[in-house]
Structures are given as C-alpha cells and as structure tokens.
Amino acid sequence: MAITIKDVAKRAAVSPATVSRVIADNPRISEKTKKKVREAMEELGYYPNFQARNLVVQRSQTLGVIMANSATLAFQNPFFPEVLRGISVSAHNSQFGLYLSTGATEEEVLQEVKAMTQGKKVDGIILLYSRIGDKVMEYLNDSGLPFSMVGRPYKNVHQISYVDNDNVRNAREVVEYFIGLGHKRIAFVAGGNDFVVSIDRLEGYQQALAAHSLDFDAQYIVTQEMMQGHGPNAILQLMNLPEPPTAIVTHDDLVAYEVIGYLEDLEINVPGDVSIIGFNNHTLSGHLKPPLSSVDISIYDLGLEAANLAIEKIMDKTAPAKQVIVSSRLIERGSCQRL
User: Residue limits of the HTH lacI-type domain (predicted)?
Assistant: First the structure.
C-alpha cells in the first residue's frame, strides 16, 4: 500500500496540513518540526508528488539554462560544466530541476526560450552570457518571466539581476602585472566583440596602458575573427611585427592554449621569448608546460549566485533586481617572466 501524507503525519505526530507545509518548505514551520517530519518521511519511504503540488501552486519547479550556442559546442569549454555545477547546487537546495537549451543558432535559442516561457515549462531562466543586441535578453526583459544573467547586461543594468566579475579591473590588473615585470609591448587576444565580457576586458587593457603612459597600438590586438580559422597566421603576423610583443593577454585559457601551440610551432618559447596570461583558471592550466598563469574568476560562484538570483525572483516577483560581483584573483604560474 502506498504511503500517504496521513501516514507521515501520524508518525511525526503532526497534522497532514503541517506535513504539506514542510514539503513546500513553508518558512512559518520551525526547523525542529521540519526535521521531525522529514525523518518520518525517510523512515516510511514517502516521496512527495511534486507534479501534483506544482499544479496547485502553478509552478514547474524548473529553471531554464540558456547558452549562447549549442550545448554540444558549449560543453567543449570547461567554463560551462563548472558554472552548471554551481547552478545545480542552488537548484537542488531549492528543489528545482534544470532545463538546458539545445538550440544551435541564435534564432533557434530564441524560439526555444519562447517555447519555455509560453508553454510554462520553466519558472525562470538563467542566461549564461551577455551579448550586445541579444534578442533573447530583450524578449525575457519584456516577458515578465523571472530571469538572471551571468555577465553584465549591455543595457538596463539596474533593472536586471546579474552576477559578474569586475572584468575591466581584472584585465587592467593583468596588464599592470605585466608592466610590473618590465613589459611594455603587451598584446591582447580578444573574445567576440559582441560579448560584454570581451568589451570590458579590452577596456581594462586600454585603461592600464593609458595609466602608465603606454600608447595603444591596434597592431597588438588580435580579434576573435582573426583567430577563427586563421589562428596560426594571426599569431605569425603578431610575432613578425618590427617590435613584437613580449607579453600576451588572452581572453581565456582555451585561447591561451591555442596561442601557446602556435608559438611552439614558430619556435617561440614561453616564457623565455614571450609571457602569457589567460582567464578562467581551468584545471588543465596548472598542468601545461609551462603551467599557465591565469585569472581565477570563481566560475562555480557565478553559477551559484545566478541561480540564487533567479530563484529569489521566482519566489518573490516584487524582489528588486540585484547585481552581484564575485571575486577574482591572478594565479601566478610559470608562463610569465620578468624582462
């Protein structure tokens, strides 16, 4: 015979209504009572019918997680499994499931988000990126569905809940670190110029140069477009300049790995001939030869806080938008050398 709420109530010596409130994690129920009821549930092997409860409260108990491109490509980047780990912990703590986007193009992702929203498949959404002119963000902002972002929005900054690093400061401090090692010719291998994080890091790079009276030289900027399909040639042109860089800032660790490979092909030694720093501090970075210096941006915390923000808006639609900045720090390893 199936175990019912009445059986749990009898075992815990409370009313069935109290059991229902414990299942819903009602804040009016004391922690002592919650503990007693949950122990009774476990002893009896009772599992709440969340589908039925969700029909009553008109929630799916599901968070949509939206990536900038297809999940197949995204999961090739170690950033996404780690940010999802943080999201999953927060979601689990609040008894939410996750619904991952699978669209391969921007238009497919937009249609998927519309289906999630209009079909009430999710209670809220987390955007794992921030892009200029992004149709998904604009749709969500107009839809009224609770959502949060990993990354500073390109507009309506104070009206949207988001979590981010101080990317301008991070890039500025990396360049200043190089300057402190005696480097003056510092290149920047950028990310996509329509992503806010890329724009912010380029701004930090330029700020550091200006603060130390170093001229900005566009020849030291390698864009994502230059790297895509033409990486070896882009790095060859950079290093064949009359005054080649002695240090390189890369948009993330994956780009740094790529650049180091091209430098090896050119018989250019890291750090003997050129120093290099990445962002994200992936696990592999500490095992390269030489180990890669990288900015740890607390990826897990980005995911955790993004989910917390989305769930807060779901539970209280009147909650004001919040902006959370998580810490970052440069991890010094063997890919940098003083001049």
Answer: 3-57
